[in-house]
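Lecture 7 notes. Example A: sequence first, then its structure tokens.
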Amino acid sequence: MTPPPARRRRNGANGSAPAHNLPRRGTVRRAQAITTYGVGSLIAVDQESFVVSGLDGADASWITDESPRIHERRLARLLGVDCFRLPPASDDGSKDGLRVRRFPLMHSCPECTELQRHREFNPPAGRSICGTCEVDLVPSRFVVACEAGHLGEFPYWQWVHRSTERGAATAGLCGGKLRLRSSGRTSSLRSILVSCTCGKASEVSMEGSFRRNALKDLGLKCHGTRPWLGSSAPAQECGLSLRTLQRGSSAVWQPVLKSALSIPPWSNGRADPLAEHWDALREYDSRDHVEIYLKGVFKGNCPVPLDEVMALLDAEREEDPDGQTAPTFDHRYRALRNKEYERLRSGNDGSEHSRDEQFVCETPLGDQSVLGPLGVTGPMLVKKLREVRALKAFTRLADPESTTESKEMPLSDASLRWLPAMEVRGEGVFLRLDEDRIGTWEKAVAVAARIERMRTAHQRVLEQRAGDPSQVVPSPAVPRMVLLHTLAHILINESSLEAGYPAAALRERLYATDDMAGVLIYTATSDSAGSLGGLVAQGEPALLDRTIRSAVRRAEWCSSDPLCMETEVSGTGGTNLAACHACVMLPETSCEHNNILLDRALLVGTPEDPDLGFFANILAH
């Protein structure tokens, strides 16, 4: 969405107060400050490159004096914060903005070919040009990172002098100057040539610098640098291997996003007058103790009835994992999803609530028996929903097909009581698969064999990603999860044709465990276009029956068949089977699992085994 001209969305600050009198460097949308240009990411502005600063710190912090607060108690409790804030989106008179710092510092001049730190070119104040040649400087195309999330400059000195007698350890002490030029013969790394004027090292190309052990072979280890936190943040002892990356590579920064739906009793749309007191209230188990605390704080005039306070506390405790004395984050996040599933099943009739209610989920009026032959049950029309997506942390060098979030880098060096987040309001359709039918289907030998191939491949990827065997999480690949995931993808593709939304504006939310088998397809836009009514209308049984049948028949054939259907492995790491961009894959914003763990054969079967598909009976008629 193009922002209105009167509102300037930017990642620099320009305030009237002296403390915020910083030059403006560019503009980003609010959503991009969470999904694309969050804390620790690199952003290109014109001919310059910057790293987005941390949320808090002496000289690296976001300026959010005017940013609205977002309250979502379930998610805030899970993430250990008091509230969330929208990223800055300031007009010309505001002090708000995101601070950035120049990174990488190594630049080259295309005229004199010198390669050195930005300040050594003596550029005029506020400009990034060579003080001698008066041409725009080019930020280094290459940076280094480790799997712990640290980020650093590419070691050009060590790379050039790696073959000298003194070795990489003393490189940089030769007294010469580095130069970088392109031979112009090809666009490959072989044409990027780096040399030193000391004459003790020959001109070398950047070829081989992206090899996994290229920097390890030079004896280089990560020093734990965190440029997004500013000069006041000391480097951390790390020692992990460094990897060379392109400055604009998606592997440089990946967000760790967590989300929750606003469901009753927290979805009434009212401001929470007890927001600052819930941590204290959770310490009390008895009604009498809660009443004493509220009387002491509010002098007998508590703005919330005691019965409502107790109901909210009980609802919170119901989301705690059963039998877990010290539940992990994953267990608590799963418990949060369980409560959403229960509420989606039971519904929340809008006629019984005020217009401020943020969650309206109703049973369709049509005859649901038409869905019985499909194995689909319990469709619900989610006419209003509110989702809060928060940026919890970020990672680097994560494999695209990995769902683990190990080695997360926090957004600040200090303890935070808030996190950046976005609100999404829209609509959706929720449906479940018949438990008896899916229970029989997932016990089939052929189904188990296909899932085991995917699970083994994904588990191998998780082990390679984690490094430490004790940190490996089990793969979520089970028959119902892969089935629901693939079904959600084909329904999004089909709904984009029927409901008028592009596929990138729809999202999936999976509920797939031993006692859950449901999927929510909902709008993912953060403005009023998310509630136009086109999607929720698809939840009426007659239309849903037609949509599912059309989607399944469409999934039966792929323009890449027979290769797509008959492939033994698909996707990086072999984490997919019969799935490709021509049939079931979606835009990254729509998928919860990065387009992995997909197999349309589980929906429609294979030519050799048509009964393998859960919806094989549709195709038989």
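Example B, a different protein, same format:
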Amino acid sequence: MTSEGWGTPPVEPISQHYIVCGGNALAHRLAVELVEHYEVPVVVLVPDRTRDHAPQIEQLPGVAAVVEYSSVTEEALRAVRVETARGIALVDGSDQENIHTALSAQDHNPGIRIVLRMFNQRLGDNIERLLRNGTALSGSATAAPAFAAAALSRPNSVQVGDRFLHIAYDEDIDSSRICVVADRIDRQDLSRIRLLPEQEGDSAPFVRLASAFGDDGPVRRIRAGAPVAGPDTGSDAGDPGTTGAGDPEGAGREPGRSAASVQEPPARPERQPEPAPARATEQEHEQEQRPAQEPGGVAALQALPSEPPIRIGWSRRLRWRLLDTLRYFTSARLRLVLITALAAVLMAFGLLWYLNRDFGWSLYVSLLDLAGAAQPDQHADAAAGTGTGGTWQRVAQVVITFCGITFAPVATAIMVEVLASGRRGQPRNPGVGTRDHVIVAGLGNLGTRVVAQLHGLGVPVVGLERDPQARGISAVRALGVPVVVDDGPLEEQLRRARLKHSRAVVAVSGDDATNLEAALEARAGKPDVRVVVRLFDDNFARHVYATLDNAASRSVSYLSAPAFAAALMGREVLGTLSVFRHVLLIAELRAEEGGALVGMNRHDLEDPGGVRVLAVRLAERPHLYTWNYADRTRRLGAGDRIVVAASRSGFARLNTTAVAED
């Protein structure tokens, strides 16, 4: 292949298309997102048709063309018709290469929408100022919070206004619930999960009650917790997975109470209930038995006034900080000398205090002895019995004096080791005091982000990397986080990372097989350790959930591709929330003057399985979020904003509606 590259340009002229530059996992997911959910023409520019995810990208039926060039040159941009494209996504290559390509694409097509992946977020923010219609995103920064939250077994949250939205499951669902976002959850079969189940209107429970207890309707005693079934109930009436989903907003009743728990009105004495047909009895019996046949759980979107805290006691935090500081400035041998000398001084001081019963005097003598300035007893004074103390006091003073002599050279050795030998530039191994920490295996872009986030939360972290040239080692080293760098057996690396005392292992290398191996080795070394695995392949993920307890699987491309696709369409996603391997997007849309959103109401916007309106910000009160806006018939006006939770396909449909052709 020449330096200019070669490839197969689109056979027919193409316009109003989107270009994806890259052959990695993110490029693959992004192409799928654009083709399947947004249904737009896509041209993919790959560096090599035979490597990475390029073969899978070529198999996608909706991709208009796959063009191969070793680098994104001017010729490559012309080959993919950048001058007629609506948008271009640069999701491969270094930050410098992506910046150069973005500026070149803007020169060819000043109105093109540009989305570029950048690791350096500060640089990305500055580059956005040079682009007329562009944005810089980081896939690792988008996905890192989900990995860190999974490692700590805490909910990942997205901030909307002054609230933090997170996903809660089953018994963790409380009165702060906004809506049900998933049901029929079966951890053994994740394909059963139903996102954003159908939402009934606020009057639906009363309509069913009127049908059941009307003038000519049968009167049946409803058991507590049983579904309210009427002649015209939907197919989800008896579904156990929709517990709370019939009225996810909890309108008209207390949180936690279902419509089925509404007490029946008193039966009129002049009318006797007629016996129900045998077939109806069989149907009711079938509905009662259905929960046992369809096991599953429920996930709900909840709001917190602040981000979920890490429950770590102050004493443990203080101990971690002291140990980290001590390990940073000293080696293991120097720490042993210091700790031994300090223990001897404390014991000698305790002995002096016990003999003299005077704390102040004992502290005074100890400090003088430690500095080598105390006046010793003379032999004549000792023989005459006029010395300052007895034999044990003299022994204690001698111990303190000799320990004081050791402190000076040890302090000198520490300074020499820190300043002269360049200890700050060397990765540190975890010490014997490392406890209750998280091991992050793989210090690439994602691993570095996860380490930084956990470290910022005050959680002890240990990095693990096989490649000594990995770019994340220096970044982790700057945080003072210990790193195990070794290309030996993974079992030995985990042992050196003190797996036995860890709380979780996060495997985030770029290879699924390596990550799965790390998870299995970690579970073999410590059966109860929490395991979080980065996996692209869904089959691997299913096996992880089906065979491993206390485990989680995440995909960087799966979490970040929806945000990249939305940015390519000119929309901003506030964040993503994971429901196992499924993704929910939290986004805010503005009704523009003349846009398709103007004149639409909640009935028009919401789509079962696709879109749920969470909050409304009216133009006259832009700073007030009205959660679960009660007026479902009010139409949006220009300047109104809506916050939605959407599946990938639902957000694509909503985005297509919002950005209708001008």
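Note on Example B: The two ends are 43 Å apart (CA to CA). Residues 140 and 401 are 55 Å apart (CA to CA).
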